[in-house]
Each structure stands twice: as structure tokens, then as C-alpha cells.
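dumping this here before i forget
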Amino acid sequence: MITRKPTRGIQVGTVKIGNGAPISVQSMITTNPVKSEQAIAEINRLAEAGCELVRVAVPTMEAAKALKAVKAGAHIPVIADIHFDYRLALEAIESGVDGLRINPGNIGGEANVLAVIEKAKPKHIPIRIGVNAGSLPAHILKEYGGHPCADGMVEAALEHVRILERLDYREMKLSIKATDVPLMIEAYRKLSDKVDYPLHLGVTEAGTVTQGTIKSAIGIGSLLADGIGDTLRVSLTGDPIHEVEVGKTILSSLGLRNYGATMISCPTCGRCQVNLFDMAEIVEERLKSIKAPIRVAVMGCVVNGPGEAREADFGIAGGDGKGIVFCKGEIIKTVPEAELVDALFEEIDAYLAKES
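structure:
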């Protein structure tokens, strides 16, 4: 059982963050908000996949103004990603965004930050302070030996925090990302010891779907297991849908969120006499529509299947032309291989009908 570190609570649109709220999954669209219909479609596609907060890059004033239409059509809270020009943040607030991601050190000084705060405060719009190892301020790099390090990253984050605190604004969350996983883990752990603001987790520039998934699972998962983290984004080079799916899997694997049915399957061996790869993919796809928190096993042989997957609510194990359906390790029936998946879902459907 993971005990989460207590943090302050903030509200981003309809989503609560920190103070014991469920850890939320975020992503970022690839579309410029100027293409509002395309941006809305991408946001809502992510929402259908389970994304709970979405970030939108705002590179120009035209994009900031377009956020009004995007926000009106989006099914989840929209966070504006602002760099360098504080006026983009002001316009994004005017467009009705639910949150801002800014770097207080790169929008032109404390006076500009104050202008953003004064506009955000009446609407209680939270601000995420984002620090990345690859873009630390020159004075931080000089002070900490010329290379990114965890202590330097933490100090950069705290400098930004102090700016907002001096302006009496504490509706913020923090991120302190790196592409190097051990550095990212160390930095977040040190920051968590110093602040009680909610933390947004991520391995930045993690890579393609395969490599980025592994790096993110290690980095984000390690921190979540420590009880650190209130939101997350898995940054992948690819369709953002993968970011959402991986984020949800990390959370469910640690028992921190329940997203419905889950599947376990064996890696196969020389005893396997069925096409387990295709069978597992078919079962996984059919399970996506099931919201009940059941665990389903797809095993390659009847020798070890029911025993190894004894904790599964339902399962199947292949044989030579036939296979078994089992429940909690007990064999229910033997059926021809071609009927195995359908027989499994007959048992699942009967159980769900009885429980509803």
C-alpha cells in the first residue's frame, strides 16, 4: 500500500490536484490552437482515452486568442503553455483557460509575472512552474558547476516559487523534469522534501513509444512508489494517445488508480501450442469496454496457467487444439481452441450481469 505525501490542493477547471485527490493523467496536443476545430478534435480524442488535463502550446497572440474557441469545445480542462511573452498568458486567461504553464524566469522579470498573477488571481487560475534540466538559467549552472544537477534544478524551481510567494500567490504546482532518469528522480525527491506544493511528474523528451515508455515507467513509477506526485505526463514521440495509455497503466500497476478490467499474460515458452500473441491482443481489445475492476489472465499452457494466474478473476489457458477457462485458479470448462476467447467472455458477461 503506497502512502502518498500530503500536498496543498489546487483546482484546475473541474479537476482537483493534490490534497489526496486522485493522481491525474495529462497530455499535450500537437495542433496549434489556431486550427481550432482540429485542436478540439484532438483534445476530445485524448479525453475519450482517459486524459484528464490537456496542455496546449501558445506560440503567438493569434494562438492565445484562438484558445477561446478551443476551450469552448474541449471536454477536459485546458492549460496554456506560455514561454517568453507574458502578454500571451494575459490573453490566454482572457480566453478562459483553466491553467497556465509558465517559467517565471523567462517572461521578462517580476513585473511581468505580477501582471499575470493579478489577472489569474480573481479567477483562481493555477500556475505550473516548469523547470527542465536542459534549460537551467546561466547563473544556476555557474553556481552548481556548469552542468545540470539535482540541487541546481531544485534551486531554480525554488527561485520561481519565491517570486509567486512574494506576490502572495500559492495556487501553483511544480515540475522539475530531466531526460536523464536518475537525475529526474533525485531532483523530484529533493524538491518534495522542501515544498508541499503538488508536483507534476514527467521524464522530459523521453523518446519514442518503446524507449520513452520504459524510461517513464522507471522514473515516474519510482516516485509514485515513494508517495511523490499528484499529476503526470508521459512524454513520448508519437501519437499522444500512447501517453495517456502508458500513464494509466503506470498508475493502475501501482494500485493508485482503477481504470476497469486489466489483463495479465504469460511470455510463452516451448510448451505453448496456441497463437498466444493474437489471442492476448483480442482479449485486451475486448476488455477495453469493461469498467469493472476485474483481472483477466491469458496463459499459454494448461500445465501452469491456472496456478500461476490463481489471483485472476477469470482466465484462459491454451492446449493442443483446445483450452481451459478458469476462475480464481479453478477450471470451469474445456473448449475447442477456436471457442476459447468467446467462452471466456461468456463467463465474464454472466458475472457482470449478476453483479449489476
